[in-house]
Specification:
Layout (H helix, E strand, L loop, with lengths): L2 E2 L5 E2 L12 H15 L11 H8 L3 H13 L3 E4 L5 E4 L5 H11 L3 H25 L2 H15 L4 H19 L2 H13 L14 H17 L2 H11 L1 H20 L2
Antiparallel strand pairs: 1-2, 3-4
C-alpha cells in the first residue's frame, strides 16, 4: 500500500525513494549512523541482517556490506561471532555522526515536520479505534505488555517491550490497513527503517504515558485515548529535532 506523502499525494515510502548522494554506500552509511544516533538501534542491539537491510533500503548486498564496514571502522558497531553473531551497536554517537545526521535529516526538515504532524494524527486514530474495538483478549495483551514494559531493567529491553506495546495497540485497533499506514509513516518520519527511535532517558515519561494510554483504551475512553496517543508520539519528533541540533552543533565545533 502506498502511503500519503507530505503534500497529500500517494507515493512510495521514504525507504524506497532513490538514494540522493553520489554513492549509495555513502547514503546507507549516513542513514545507519543516523538511525543509531536516534536510538532506532541502541548500544547492545544487533543491526538487521544483510538481507533485511537490502530489502528495507532497496540496495545491493555489496552496498550494505560497505556501509556496515564503515560503521565498524567508525567504532559504531562491532562484529560478534557464533550462533547469535552479527553486527552489534557499540556506540550511539561518534565523530562520524556529527556529519551524517545533518546530511540525512536537514535536507528533509520541512518534510519531516509535516510527517510528524501526519503521524500524530494517524496514531490518534489508531488509539481511538483501539478504545472502540478492544476485545477481552486485546485487554489482556495490552495489560501484559504494559506490565512488561514497566518492569524492563535495561535500555535494550525497554526498547523491545516499547515496540511490543505499540504493536498491541495497533492490533486492538482492528484494522490491518491502519496498522500498515502507521508502520509506513514511522519509516517515512525517520530514516526509512520502520522501528521506533528510543531514548532510555525518557523511560519514566514513557511509562506514565503508556500507562495512561492503556488505561484509556481498556476503559473504552475514545477521546482520552486519542489525545494521549497524539501527545505521546511527539516524543519521536522531539528525538529527531534534538539529534539534528546536536549534529549541527558538533559540526560547528569541528576545526
Amino acid at each position: 500500500m502506498s502511503a500519503l506523502d507530505a503534500n497529500g499525494s500517494t507515493g512510495p515510502p521514504a525507504a524506497l525513494l532513490p538514494l540522493r548522494r553520489t554513492s549509495a554506500a555513502d547514503e546507507v552509511t549516513d542513514r545507519l549512523l543516523t538511525a543509531v544516533a536516534l536510538g532506532t538501534y541502541l548500544p547492545g542491539e544487533r543491526l538487521p541482517v544483510e538481507r533485511e537491510l537490502c530489502s528495507v533500503l532497496r540496495v545491493s548486498r555489496s552496498t550494505v556490506r560497505s556501509a556496515v564496514a564503515r560503521l565498524r571502522a567508525a567504532g559504531v558497531v562491532e562484529v560478534r561471532r557464533g550462533r547469535s553473531g552479527g553486527s552489534y551497536v557499540s556506540s550511539s554517537w561518534t565523530a562520524a555522526s556529527a556529519g551524517a545526521v545533518p546530511r540525512t535529516l536537514e535536507p528533509r526538515s520541512s518534510e519531516l515536520e509535516l510527517l510528524f504532524d501526519l503521524r500524530a494524527r494517524v496514531e490518534e486514530m489508531v488509539a481511538r479505534a483501539a478504545a472502540e474495538r478492544r476485545t477481552a483478549e486485546d485487554i489482556r495483551t495490552l495489560e501484559s505488555a504494559m506490565a512488561a514494559f514497566a518492569s524492563a531493567s535495561q535500555p535494550t529491553e525497554e526498547h523491545m517491550r516499547d515496540g511490543a506495546l505499540h504493536e498491541a495497540v495497533l492490533a486492538a485497533a482492528g484494522n490491518p490497513l491502519l496498522a500498515e499506514l502507521s508502520r509506513d509513516l514511522l519509516a517515512r518520519a525517520t530514516v526509512g527503517v520502520p522501528r521506533e527511535p528510543y531514548r532510555s532517558s525518557v523511560f519514566a515519561r514513557a511509562v506514565q504515558e503508556h500507562t495512561e494510554l492503556v488505561t484509556a483504551v481498556v476503559d473504552g475512553d475514545v477521546q482520552r485515548a486519542g489525545a494521549i496517543a497524539r501527545k505521546h508520539f511527539a516524543m519521536s519528533a522531539e528525538a529527531l529535532r534534538e539529534i539534528l541540533a546536536r549534529g549541527l552543533a558538533d559540526g560547528l565545533r569541528d576545526p
